[in-house]
Amino acid sequence: MMNAADNELLVRTNAGTPMGEYFRRYWLPVALSKEMPAPDSAPIRVKVMGEELVAFRDTEGRVGLVEPRCAHRGSSLFFGRNEECGLRCVHHGWKYDVEGKCVDMPNVEPDAGMRGKISIKAYPTREFGELVWAYFGPREIMPELPQLEHGLLPASQRYVTKRLQQCNWAQSMDGAVDTAHFSFLHMPAPAFKSNSAANIAADEKRIGWLRQDPMPRFTILDHDVGFVVGGARKADGRDLYWRITQFMLPTHSITPSAMPGEVYYGYTWVPVDDESCWIYVYGWHPDRAITADERAKFDKGGYGQFAELGPGYLPLRNRSNDYLIDREEQKTLSFTGVRGIAEQDTLAQESQGVIADRTKEHLTATDIGVVHFRRLMIKEARALRDGREPAAAKLHESYRLRSGGAVLSSDLSFEEVMKKRFGSSTGKVS
Amino acid sequence: MMNAADNELLVRTNAGTPMGEYFRRYWLPVALSKEMPAPDSAPIRVKVMGEELVAFRDTEGRVGLVEPRCAHRGSSLFFGRNEECGLRCVHHGWKYDVEGKCVDMPNVEPDAGMRGKISIKAYPTREFGELVWAYFGPREIMPELPQLEHGLLPASQRYVTKRLQQCNWAQSMDGAVDTAHFSFLHMPAPAFKSNSAANIAADEKRIGWLRQDPMPRFTILDHDVGFVVGGARKADGRDLYWRITQFMLPTHSITPSAMPGEVYYGYTWVPVDDESCWIYVYGWHPDRAITADERAKFDKGGYGQFAELGPGYLPLRNRSNDYLIDREEQKTLSFTGVRGIAEQDTLAQESQGVIADRTKEHLTATDIGVVHFRRLMIKEARALRDGREPAAAKLHESYRLRSGGAVLSSDLSFEEVMKKRFGSSTGKVS
Amino acid sequence: MMNAADNELLVRTNAGTPMGEYFRRYWLPVALSKEMPAPDSAPIRVKVMGEELVAFRDTEGRVGLVEPRCAHRGSSLFFGRNEECGLRCVHHGWKYDVEGKCVDMPNVEPDAGMRGKISIKAYPTREFGELVWAYFGPREIMPELPQLEHGLLPASQRYVTKRLQQCNWAQSMDGAVDTAHFSFLHMPAPAFKSNSAANIAADEKRIGWLRQDPMPRFTILDHDVGFVVGGARKADGRDLYWRITQFMLPTHSITPSAMPGEVYYGYTWVPVDDESCWIYVYGWHPDRAITADERAKFDKGGYGQFAELGPGYLPLRNRSNDYLIDREEQKTLSFTGVRGIAEQDTLAQESQGVIADRTKEHLTATDIGVVHFRRLMIKEARALRDGREPAAAKLHESYRLRSGGAVLSSDLSFEEVMKKRFGSSTGKVS
């Protein structure tokens, strides 16, 4: 259980809030690269941590991220004409480059004093892993991009998308470090014996282990950019089925699903405002291309970490339609009656309220990952508020991490499991 | 005319308000029984007096009415799995019985201290007259269910439904004790001579009396659970056409329409919040079954007290579409141009505003029923606030009442009319 | 740049605000005459400067504009029956004439004291130029109707409509006195050479002058009911292309488009509330009828000053659908990618925000008309607040004005241009 002040500190990220300032020390994804597919393609609206912005790709392929109001009379630059290395307001033709500098004022005398002195707010951007990243913090301490593994690979070896979640970011992040819910939320209905249906999480063996042991034992190892948490369930014989999750500051996670040789999956959360967030979702394979068949399944959605998406990257099964819950399927097919692992997560997280009230919880031993995450975030945000800059923001190389599943002897400690499965105790890619 | 403070006292029923606390001394309908048609059928959302709840029928047919948040991490129990005598949260599997007790915690150690000690808020429920009733007050003074006549009869002799009204409960209740509006709101257009159209209230004779006498004389008789009000209009010769209405605390009414041998109709109002309410509507015949033909008409709606309903029991003709008013029909067919008695009432009541402002009224002699109702409610709510529990809540037998219409000699007093028409001066069924 | 207090003073027009009181010294259009096409036709809802009203045309053709609540019990008179020189409430039959007097109370005794003493709020109305005008100010100083030229002509010589704009009135009025935006907002795309497309503002010659000179020189002449502003651009040889606009207190304008012999166009803005406004739009020709072909084009919309309208006079291309901007057309056809001059204006104005924040502007020499308008409005509203009644309200004859375009020698002063083009330095019709 958390006090109300800590809950507020955790969830609020608008400019000026402690957590908001903390987030502003890190690069954050703000769009998919493909949302601005070509030079001079259409500008898009971007809203990040309560701030409304416009992004555009200029004639040379650079991405600008600027405030949407023209400095002249305030018309929206979203409707601007993206042309010849700048976004031109359609009202009287003022034009801005990707750094927000006003580079043309057709209705201003050539010798007027205001020429060359007008800028609108602009944030630095980078592209990495088919994501557009932006940095909202002080320029003098701007770090490098976090070297997430999917971004370091050839495009053929990754798949990147996003989806809109209609609740606060932190309760969705909670779900990522909580592998205990797998024993219910993503299970087939108790009466359901086969695993042939698309909305079942893993193969029959794993389903059996998850179902039989709803109380995994957790071990947490802190590292320099977050922590890795392992949840161990009884498997066959003396073996344990480990589900291992990475958490990287401020909002990155790698899922516990990948068994050796399988595709890895990661998430990054970015608040739209306090009541909704983007979840950037990526799959990657370090050793081979993502196949056409895999891409087709990811595109279609309702498959693994990928929701079935409608317009605006909003899942088709969402809060407004009760996730199309089918009460008959809930009796006979899946525990929730909702199709899709991602959609099931969304249901569980969004239904906690638009902003979850953590003061009324009754936490258990299996919530240890959640508790660890929350304490770390609050500690970090408070430290910054007290003048201590976050160390992790500078450690971009430390983000080359993996996590996933493993079935190994119960004689091994979690550190030994990590070394055996990933080659290092933290999951760092060597 | 009412002062603003009294208006506020009358209309507000959230927890902690004087009228809200008064309502919480009585059993109130919260759903139709058929909304949870079978053991382990789908849970439903219920909102009563501003409080959001979930109702479910368990494996043994009992109805639970509980707060919607799981005590563990707060996910909504509306999405819960209704199974084996309990509602199980789909997130981590905590399970609650109809009394709100957490009876299973799969992710908690068998010897953990929290086991057996966790409950969520739950309210007692009963079923009576095909309605699910709940009690929201102090358990130690919980009364019996009010013995409304329709609930005492075999199911074949009654018909029960509900509809959503998009305004405060009290202005809709106002309409029930005001028979004067019949001379306008439910009349054919002045030019319209026949009574063949479906949206006309009664037979040609009654229409004539109602139309010719827009100023009925009212008599009120108080009784132990409310009052009965008679409105007398000139009929043929020396006769009077009496329209007699029951009001029973806190929000029950029986309509003045039934002539001897006809079906009786009653209403119960239950606030969803201060800006909308449910109207439970029931028809019953003490002596015979409701016929298949009658049921078909009630089901279809736009007939007598029964509105034509769309999804969610919202009338098809509602505030959002101006009740599909047809201005040509308003000239030639009916006084309102809106089809359906229930819909006409809804128009008149909702158009007073979401919460009617009674400080600007100019009341007349024909508003005596309305005034009597309001004064009684305010007096009762103030009495409770001052520590005097409502007597009517305990008098469940006194709710076996009838009212309706009669055509009798003007020599008879209202008490004599009541005795002649219903066998007792209060309308009590013997 | 404006301070926040002045911005507030400029934009707010609800009762009790300085600008609201100022507006209430003038007659304002509140509906098109054709919205109430015949005696006893259906009442309509009208909302003006935050006040909700009902308008109806009575049996004798007079228009009533009254508060919508029946004085008896508050049901809405919008649903009233419009009959025999009055609007009758459908609830209990109280009836009101066009002056708001309650002329029938069927449920009140003939000798009751309240008879003849009940009124609801009503405002005086007039019809002029196919518009229904109302006056909301003190009766003792009620002026005459402003004698706008289109209202003085036979109906055959004018065309009148309206459209809903979803932003504050003042930023839309700003657009009317700013001819500089024509060089961008209404231009073909730079690559587009022909003027054959429907969404191009004028003929090829004018397009060329507008495009080549985005910095017109402005001259302003004050007159007794506002001011006339001329914007001069280089035309061929030594000629100037003048675009001349009238502004008349409080919210009338005549456009700068009409060349000699062409149709004139005017606008009047009326706030619905602070976040939306009606724009009444009229075209007229002093010397000939509007042709059937012209009327067909105006009816269809997306032509000149006439937007393509959907239900409720809301443009089909509006804020909710990003004006159906076509980014391909923005590259190849028009500067905005939005079809229709009126729609382009709407985009530019609405995108400044629901209420534009003038404290963040950077104004230029071409914003002189805008600045002049704002200063005048603020000065006038402050004067009234300080007890000085507006002089212009009494000068109804001074509203017979014209403006438009002219191509004349650069040797002529603006006054000489006005005399040559309109016969007087102010544009007054003699």
Oligomer: homotrimer
Uncertain regions of chain A: pLDDT < 50 for 5+ in a row? Answer: 195-201
N-to-C CA distance of chain A: 39 Å
By DSSP (H or I, 4+ residues per run), the number of helices of chain A equals: 10
**Strand fraction band of chain A?**
15-25%
Give the H and E element order of chain A: HHEEEEEEEEEEHEHHEEEEEEHHHHEH
| Average residue-wise pLDDT of chain A | 95
Radius of gyration of chain A: 23 Å
Query: How much helix is in the residues of chain A?
Result: 10-25%
Q: Show the largest interface.
A: A-B, 37 and 28 residues
Structural class of chain A: alpha+beta
Label the overall shape of chain A. globular
What characterizes the major β-sheet of chain A?
Answer: 8 strands, antiparallel
Count every beta strand of chain A, where a strand is a DSSP E run of 2 or more residues.
Answer: 18
At a glance:
Three copies of one chain form a homotrimer. With 430 residues, chain A is of the alpha+beta class.
Can you offer a commentary on this structure?
By secondary structure, chain A is α+β, with helices and mostly antiparallel strands. Chain A is built from 10 helices and 18 strands. In chain A, helix 4 (169-176) crosses helix 9 (368-385). Chain A is globular and about 85 Å long. In chain A, a hairpin with a 3-residue loop joins strand 14 (239-248) and strand 15 (252-254). In chain A, the strands form 4 sheets. In chain A, strands 11, 12, 13, 14, 15, 16, 17 and 18 form an 8-stranded antiparallel β-sheet that branches. A 4-stranded antiparallel β-sheet of chain A has the order 5-6-7-8, with no helix packed on it. In chain A, strands 1-10-9 form a 3-stranded antiparallel β-sheet, with no helix packed on it. Chain A has helices spanning 4-11, 18-23, 149-152, 169-176, 204-212, 292-300, 327-332, 341-350, 368-385, 414-422, and strands at 27-32, 44-48, 51-57, 63-66, 81-83, 86-88, 95-96, 102-104, 125-128, 131-135, 158-165, 217-223, 226-234, 239-248, 252-254, 264-273, 276-284, 405-409.
